[in-house]
UniProtKB/TrEMBL annotation:
Species of the source: Natronorubrum halalkaliphilum
CDD domains reported for this sequence: ABC_MJ0796_LolCDE_FtsE
Regions that span the bilayer: none
Domain ABC transporter: 17-245
GO CC, alphabetical: membrane protein complex; plasma membrane
Keyword terms: ATP-binding, Nucleotide-binding, Transport
InterPro entries reported in the protein's UniProt record: AAA+_ATPase, ABC_transporter-like_ATP-bd, ABC_transporter-like_CS, ABC_transpr_LolD-like, MacB-like_ATP-bd, P-loop_NTPase
GO molecular function: ATP binding; ATP hydrolysis activity; transmembrane transporter activity
Protein's UniProt name: ATP-binding cassette domain-containing protein
Length: 245
């Protein structure tokens, strides 16, 4: 059974993400690597999708179904070959890379499968990194990072470096980092993919719980994760085969 939806009706909440007829192709240019290297690969085909504020949506499907590409398009990390992607009312396909980066820094929290923590920095310093880019002072960064590490159960690990943390603890640091700017949208790409079942389910529950009152879009191939979602969107070969409505 899917997680209970917010008490508001879906139509009462504003649209946070809207993808309209999104197609995206990789490659297609000639290459010194050979003729095969120049062939394009269609990652997404005419994907249309609406995700509303305060909705927790899971993207599921086998490897290569387009889950990660959908997340990258929503984050403005890639510009689709065709179609439009709107994030918080902004059409990303009409914005420059600088504008997309600014919106992403201010309004989007990203959780990567491989954590992407800097090994030389403490947990607190890793969490605080997005605030450095936004110009926050050192004291404010430290305070905010400690608050979030407490929230994810790592209050006693703030000064530990990634190499001194377990895989589950590193993922908690990554989740705290994704929330440090108080983003409107959190995007998580296979956040439990490298974790054992028990730790993975705990991390998934944590991600959903601490992201309360935010829009969360989570890509996963783990069918057990769907119980934590308000809605599940299923993809296959780059197409939406079920939008979960």
């Amino acid at each position: 059974m899917a997680r209970e939806r917010p008490s508001e009706t879906a139509t009462a909440r504003p649209v946070a993400v809207r993808c309209t007829d999104v197609t995206h192709e990789y490659g297609g240019r000639s290459s010194w690597l050979g003729s095969d290297a120049g062939r394009s690969v269609t990652a997404l085909r005419d994907v249309s999708l609406e995700i509303r504020s305060n909705e927790v949506v899971g993207l599921t499907g086998p490897s290569g179904s387009g889950k990660s590409t959908v997340l990258h398009a929503i984050a403005g990390l890639v510009v689709p070959t065709a179609g439009t992607v709107e994030l918080l009312g902004t059409d990303l396909t009409t914005r420059s890379e600088t504008e997309r980066t600014r919106l992403r820094r201010e309004s989007v929290g990203l959780v990567f499968q491989q954590f992407h923590l800097l090994p030389a920095l403490s947990a607190a310093a890793n969490v605080a990194l997005p605030l450095v880019q936004l110009g926050y002072g050192r004291r404010d960064r430290r305070t905010r990072a400690r608050e979030l590490l407490e929230q994810v159960g790592l209050g006693d690990r703030v000064d530990h470096r990634p190499g001194e943390l377990s895989g589950g603890e590193q993922q908690r640091v990554a989740i705290a980092r994704s929330l440090v700017t108080d983003p409107d949208v959190v995007l998580a790409d296979e956040p439990t993919g490298e974790l054992d079942t028990e730790t993975g389910m705990a991390i998934l529950a944590l991600l959903v719980d601490v992201a309360d009152e935010r829009t969360v879009v989570l890509a996963t191939h783990d069918e057990r994760a769907v119980d934590r979602m308000h809605r599940v969107v299923r993809l296959l070969d780059g197409e939406v085969i079920d939008d979960g409505r």
